[in-house]
Inverse folding.
């Protein structure tokens, strides 16, 4: 199959409308449509069919393309999320759950659903299908593709999802009483929390059913990544039959060996790829090689039963964000998602027709989070949190760092809805009175003095190097030091892996990358949330999230979001800053690169990227 390219000018198609928010969208709770639409290619075309016929598509197409019967072409395409090294085949623990790690593992482990470019949910029919078979109780039937196998030849079966239920079951614990913690170190426990009994179905079969104890807002995407049960059974020494029986019985003591392997057995050291024996793939790519500090190369999975990947190798480079534009120019990278800055955009535009630039809005938002751990100066001092919020120059940050890229950019005053969404102003009006819109140095200084605190070091931690965040911290320091704080730039190369979990920060500066999930914010703001890194706790917020997540009614969602936003402002969980402007740039000879507003980034359809002539 021969590929041809259009000019870079023809590549710039209109972006899809954004209809869902990062954590709690106002869209429908139930979307059972499958994603079969052909998308707009990054170069304005999608190739399909053995003869290489071109398919011209409309900008409203948002799912993955049906490329027809294609052959994988030789060669490689390179991409980078950032400089963070790969850390685990298991991306579903709090320590490994990141866009950096998922860029690799999501190419290797398939799921029943994915988010299109607009945040809508599409069924991944090459992997399997699901359907709601009952409303009361809520029951969902899953059917795995009959041909689905792990790359070691083992069939993908219900066993993988029975184990997943056990992994995400908060009732399977180690320790007793107040010391009890989930046995499996999973990033979320919604599956076990929402579904009281293990999936029903033949362990070795391709069908299974789950029954919820009450309605659940995000039921279509509850089942995400499932690691290979046969590997856990073997590596833990339990054997499949004993392990599955222990999961169904919620037998923590018996499952201890399985949990020990699941929690850490897939973690890696730079340059040492896990063998296919313990890290098989059931996606379009599998591991090939790892050059520590440089890149991981994935190759087409020869056991993949679906549409073959368009290109034989996908190279994920570990490259610092400030090197991406130069690497794109040099050909060391073919697809980049640089942090949107004025300098970056000017540099990209200077490369002319050799690249294609895609710009649109993003479901990713920047924020400052307070640390509520005991040792933090902000933990028991709402006055100091208020003082800090009053001295952070939010408008200046947006004016200087974001508006030159997006003239329509505004200071963001919500977390669960975005300024470009229809319900945004209604939510803000119900939750926030505007008191932190402008710097109030007089009041901030007064609150600092009244606190009586003398050690007011404020370490602002973020993943470094990151030029825009470094500038943000510098602007905050210039303002907040005047109020009596001592702001310290605590950017660290391993902020998320080491610094943040240890609590060695007063304020965290980072972004949540959104998707079409309705209730995912519960994991961030609820007292029991696995992503509640600052240990924030608020009974009203907890109750509102519990109500929202256990409903499929959009009106309930909208009502609870207002409560959540109001309480997060009143207790000052943190300070929202702005929605990220999105930029994707790629070599003009790469087809089918498609920017997306959701957390998967441009790499979401990397198996469709192809080099053209």
């Amino acid at each position: 199959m021969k590929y041809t390219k259009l000019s870079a000018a023809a590549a710039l198609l209109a972006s899809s409308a954004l209809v869902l928010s990062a954590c709690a969208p106002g869209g429908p709770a139930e979307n059972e449509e499958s994603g079969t639409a052909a998308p707009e290619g990054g170069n304005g075309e999608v190739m399909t069919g053995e003869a290489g016929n071109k398919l011209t598509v409309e900008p409203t197409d948002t799912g993955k393309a049906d490329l027809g019967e294609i052959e994988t072409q030789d060669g490689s395409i390179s991409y980078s999320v950032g400089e963070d090294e790969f850390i685990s085949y298991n991306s579903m623990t709090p320590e490994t759950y990141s866009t950096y790690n998922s860029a690799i593992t999501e190419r290797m482990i398939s799921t029943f659903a994915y988010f299109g470019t607009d945040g809508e949910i599409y069924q991944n029919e090459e992997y399997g299908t699901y359907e709601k078979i009952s409303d009361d109780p809520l029951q969902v039937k899953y059917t795995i593709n009959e041909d689905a196998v792990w790359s070691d030849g083992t069939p993908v079966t219900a066993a993988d999802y029975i184990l997943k239920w056990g992994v995400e079951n908060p009732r399977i614990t180690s320790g007793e009483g107040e010391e009890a913690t989930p046995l499996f170190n999973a990033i979320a426990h919604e599956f076990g929390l929402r579904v009281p009994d293990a999936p029903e179905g033949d362990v070795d079969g391709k069908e299974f059913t789950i029954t919820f104890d009450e309605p659940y807002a995000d039921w279509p995407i509850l089942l995400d990544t499932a690691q290979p049960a046969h590997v856990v059974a073997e590596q833990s020494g339990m054997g499949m039959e004993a392990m599955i029986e222990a999961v169904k019985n919620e037998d923590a003591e018996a499952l201890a060996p399985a949990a020990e392997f699941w929690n850490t057995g897939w973690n890696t050291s730079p340059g040492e790829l896990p063998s296919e024996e313990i890290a098989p793939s059931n996606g379009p790519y599998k591991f090939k090689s790892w050059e520590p500090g440089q890149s991981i190369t994935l190759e087409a999975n020869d056991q993949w039963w679906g549409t073959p990947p368009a290109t034989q190798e996908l190279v994920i480079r570990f490259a610092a964000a400030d090197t991406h534009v130069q690497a794109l120019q040099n050909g060391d990278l073919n697809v980049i998602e640089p942090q949107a800055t004025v300098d970056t955009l000017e540099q990209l535009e200077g490369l002319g027709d050799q690249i294609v630039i895609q710009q649109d809005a993003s479901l990713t938002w920047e924020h400052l989070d307070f640390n509520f751990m005991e040792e933090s100066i902000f933990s028991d001092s709402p006055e100091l949190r208020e003082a800090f919020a009053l001295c952070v120059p939010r408008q200046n940050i947006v004016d200087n760092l974001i508006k030159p890229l997006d003239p329509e950019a505004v200071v963001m005053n919500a977390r669960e809805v975005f300024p470009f969404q229809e319900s945004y102003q209604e939510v803000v009006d119900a939750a926030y009175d505007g008191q932190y819109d402008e710097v109030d140095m007089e009041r901030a200084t007064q609150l600092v003095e009244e606190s009586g605190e003398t050690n007011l070091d404020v370490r602002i931690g973020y993943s470094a190097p990151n030029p825009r965040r470094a500038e943000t911290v510098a602007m905050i320091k210039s303002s907040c030091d005047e109020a009596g704080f001592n702001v310290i730039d605590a950017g660290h190369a391993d902020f998320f892996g080491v610094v943040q979990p240890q609590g060695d920060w007063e304020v965290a500066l980072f972004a949540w990358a959104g998707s079409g999930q309705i209730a995912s914010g519960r994991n961030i703001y609820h007292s029991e949330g696995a992503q509640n890194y600052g240990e924030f706790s608020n009974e009203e917020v907890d109750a509102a999230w519990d109500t929202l997540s256990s409903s499929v009614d959009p009106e309930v969602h909208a009502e609870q979001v207002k409560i959540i936003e109001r309480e997060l402002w009143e207790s000052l969980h943190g300070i929202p800053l702005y929605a990220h402007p999105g930029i994707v740039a790629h070599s003009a000879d790469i087809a089918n690169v498609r920017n997306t507003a959701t957390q998967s980034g441009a790499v979401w359809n990397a198996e469709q990227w192809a080099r053209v002539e």
